[in-house]
Design goal:
Length: about 140
Amino acid sequence: MQRLPDWEARLAAYLEPLRARPFEWGRHDCCAFTFGAVEAMTGVDAMAEYRGRYRTARGSVRALRRIGAGTLEASVDAKFARIGAGLAQRGDIVMSSGLLGICLGRFLVAVGSEGAREGLVRIDRARWVDPIAWRVPFAG
């Protein structure tokens, strides 16, 4: 799995319609959003085995235990190379306080809420808590 030559345009096109989409387990949660972004950039659905397999928080935990490596962190480790969070670049996967999202330079973009608004939120790099990052590989 590698980023396609036009990955930045693909990522931007993926993000735009999701800006105000509310959270929904299994369809628009942090995992589904993040791996949808990875699919947009690479053309590979790294979450295929999870799609349609959970609709609740409890169901997501069960799916990670049954299909994945037990936890979200371990399941991402099984698919992507971990990097130092300080090295995360635009398009890499980042977890902060257990929330998974995509690095957009100075920000982590993830599904969440700000006040009454639901949809994509930006978390400034300086506010990342116990961050973990994984590289989404570039071609050659």
